[in-house]
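Researcher: Structure for this, please.
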Amino acid sequence: MNTPPPPRSPWQLLYGAAHAVRRRYWSRRAARLPRPVVSVGNLHFGGAGKTPVVAAIAAHLRDAGWRVAILSRGYRGRGRGVRMVSVGEGPLLGPRNAGDEPVLLAGELPGVAVLVGPDRAAAGRHALQRLDPAPDLFLLDDGFSHLRLERDLDLLVFPAADPFAGGRLAPSGRLREPLRSAERADAVLLTGSAEPGDGAALAGALRPYGFRGPGFASPRVLAAPIGERGEPVGPGARVLAIAAIARPEPFFAAARTCTAVVGERAFPDHYDYPDAALRAIEQASRELAADWVLTTGKDRVKLHGRLRWPLAELPLRAAPEPAFWSWLDGRLGPPPAGTHR
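Model: Predicted structure, C-alpha cell format:
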C-alpha cells in the first residue's frame, strides 16, 4: 500500500499551512473534560465508515462496564445548542433536529447516551450534570478535526476502497486535512478490509507522514435485511435499493448479494428526502413492482413513517479485528470501580 506524494500546488500548500496554524491555536486553548475522551474521526469528506466503527466501540465499552456518552456535532441537524438525543433508552429527537447519524446511534445502542452540539466540551459538561449515573467515558463522534476538546485517544479511520483520497485537499481533492495530520492519531483502522495484515500495511504507508501508532483492519459485517417491524426480507424479495451516503456502491453491491435488486437510486450524502423525492421513490417502486424499499440505517431513520411503501434496512456493521480490542482495552484500562453493570 503506497501513499501518494505530498501535493505541491500553491493552493494545496496554503491549505495545509492553514490547518497547521489552526492546530497550533487550539493546542493551547482546548477544553478538558474530567473523564477520558476517545475520538473517532477521518480525514476524508464522508464515506470512511466512521459511524459503524463508533457504534462498535460504544457497544464494546458499554459491555466492558463503561458508562459511555457519545458526543456528536449533529451534522445537518436543525436544532441549536446542546441537545440530548438519548439517555440510553432510544431516540428522544428526530433526525431533522439532531442529524441522522446521532439518531441512528441512539436507536442501535441501548445503555449509551447520545448528545449533539457544536461545542462538544459543552455537551460533555451537560451530560455530567444531567445524566444519573454520570458517564465515565466520552466517545467523540467525527472528532478528529474538532480541536476545541482534548482527547485521550485519537482513532483515525480510512476506507479500504480509497484510503488516501488521492492525497489532495479540497476543493480539488477529497481530503479535509493533509495526510500529515495522521501523526496526531494513536491508531488507524482500515474499514471494509477483512485482512488483518491490511491494517499494518496502512500504518506502514502512513509512516512517511509522521504516524507512529498501530494499524488494524475493520471488516464490514453484513446482516440479513430486515423490515421495520422485524420482518425478514428473503433473498428472492424484489427491492428498490436507495442510499444517501457518500459511497453508495458498497451498499448496492451488498444488497445484490442478498436480495433481488430491481432498481438502484443514489442521493447526495445526508439527503433530507423532501416530499418530491418520496413521491419519486414510491412511483419507481410501483413501476418496478418492488416488494420493498431497501436502504441504509441512517436513511431508514429519515424515511421512517414518511414512505408509503414497505421499508427495510440492510444492516452493515463494523467488526474490528481482535487485536484492536486488546489494544484499546490496554490503553484505557478497566472502567472505574463501581461502574460495572
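Researcher: Any notable elements?
Model: The domain at 10-220+319-332 is CATH 3.40.50.300 (Rossmann fold). The first strand starts at residue 37 and ends at 42.
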